[in-house]
TrEMBL record:
Protein name: Sulfotransferase
Topology term for the membrane: Single-pass type II membrane protein
Entries under InterPro entries matching the protein: NST/OST, P-loop_NTPase, Sulfotransferase_dom
Chain ranges passing through the membrane: 20-39
GO cellular component, as recorded: Golgi membrane
Disulfide bonds: 349-361
Length: 403
């Protein structure tokens, strides 16, 4: 047989004197191929090998991996953003295959992904990780199925409104997958590009909604235009809270990091308590909701918004979550059965948070005791916010009962 091969390579055996030389080169070639084969089997060549029907990790040029310094860590005391750990893992994909429902037909949950987001361009196909056998029984949201999509819904605000609680409650829903940490894409990281942003997202099935929350978007001038440019169909959720309490909560957070911070009163007023309120202080400015909303309404109609009451999220989490699920077109899965009131914490907590069977409350940075603020200061702040609150109630058609 070896001779046969040799004959073939030497032009069918007519040049007997030259037969030995090709045999050596053939042997050398075979040794090289064998060595390369062993090298590949150890996994060492996967990253550089060209993809000829093989798994490749598709990363856009210049992309930044999730979990890099650009990502905001969760506040101290909060759980590790599990999605951040999973969403950036290198997954296999096969070239030339389409990912999402190519017919555009509504899926069993009634969502049509193409209707939901015209920029839902999917980058990957559902391929199990190495060593994982695809099976319907194991079709859980954690096993690498699905594709990365732009979020169809974003919690855009407001800081200290209760955005973390809302996101954690929503993550209980099997049809919601959300990025754990705040990506700050539409305010701080926009230069990274949309591919970078999409790559941060957890994988979702077509029946699932991709979400993220970054409360600073609500007060970022460019955010509405940028989100509109990503998809005009994006659903926007704003958790609002009494602006006076919100300002104190904001101050409490800064104070916890900077104990030498001047008093709330010293920061809230330009001179003394009798002087004008300092609207350049972000803790005050963020609470002028009507002003910020005006900027968003230049791009999105009111129907694209859901305003969640931060107060009701504490007093009636199931009721508020009902509204949120309806707005997102989700089945009402999250109900009062999911919550219990933790007396020590003074807040509702989840009986079974996503990925855990143990009850859990939010971390220490949520639900912190606030410093006592002089009643005169509170009164002045209430008066300051009243006209803006009224305007906000009028714009949204909702009375939040802060006055
Ligand atoms: N269930 C539950 N558990 C704990 N805390 C809850 C909950 N629901 C709402 N809240 C309120 O959420 C406030 C923090 O708001 P955010 O999560 O939006 O803060 S942040 O902007 O992400 O830092 C936080 O503000 P503080 O009380 O000032 O800490 C809480 O009042």
């Amino acid at each position: 047989m070896g001779c046969g091969i040799l004959r073939l390579r030497t032009g069918c055996g007519h040049l007997g004197a030259l037969r030995a030389q090709p045999l050596v080169s053939l042997l050398l070639t075979m040794i090289c191929l064998f060595t390369y084969f062993i090298y590949c089997l150890t996994g060492s060549c996967c990253e550089s090998a060209p993809a000829i029907g093989s798994f490749t990790a598709r990363q856009p040029a210049g992309s930044v991996r999730p979990g890099s310094a650009l990502m905001d860590p969760l506040p101290p005391g909060e759980s590790v953003p599990r999605d951040l750990l999973t969403s950036g893992s290198v997954q296999g994909n096969l070239p030339g295959l389409s990912v999402s429902n190519p017919s555009g037909a509504p899926n069993p949950r009634g969502h049509n992904p193409q209707e939901r987001n015209h920029l839902n361009g999917t980058t990957d196909i559902p391929v199990p990780r190495y060593g994982q056998e695809p099976s319907l029984g194991s079709l859980s949201v954690h096993n690498g199925y699905g594709s990365k999509k732009f979020p169809q819904a974003v919690i855009v605000g407001v800081k200290k409104g209760g955005t973390r609680a809302l996101l954690e409650f929503l993550r209980v829903h099997p049809d919601v997958r959300a990025l754990g940490a705040e990506p700050h894409f539409f305010d701080r990281c926009y230069d990274q590009g949309l591919d970078w942003y999409r790559n941060l997202m957890p994988r979702t099935l077509d029946s699932q909604i991709t979400m993220e929350k970054t409360p600073s978007y609500f007060v970022t001038m460019e955010a509405p235009r940028r989100i509109y440019n990503m998809s005009r169909d994006t659903k926007l959720i704003v958790v609002v809270r009494n602006p006076v309490t919100r300002a104190i909560s904001d101050y409490t957070q800064t104070l916890s990091k900077t104990p030498s911070l001047p008093s709330f009163q010293a920061l809230a007023f330009k001179n003394t308590t009798t002087g004008p309120i300092d609207t350049t202080w972000s803790a005050i400015r963020i609470g002028i909701y009507a002003k910020h909303l005006e900027n968003w309404l230049k791009y999105f109609p009111l129907s694209k918004f859901l305003f969640v009451s931060g107060e009701r999220l504490v007093s009636d989490p199931a009721g508020e979550m009902g509204r949120v699920q309806d707005f997102l077109g989700l089945k009402r899965v999250i109900t009062d059965k999911h919550f219990y009131f933790n007396e020590t914490k003074g807040f509702p907590c989840l009986k079974k948070p996503e990925g855990s069977s143990k009850p859990r409350c939010l971390g220490k940075s949520k639900g912190r005791p606030h410093p006592n603020i002089d009643t005169k200061v509170l009164q002045r702040l209430r008066e300051f916010y009243r006209p803006f609150n009224m305007k906000f109630y009028q714009m949204t058609g909702q009375n939040f009962g802060w006055d």
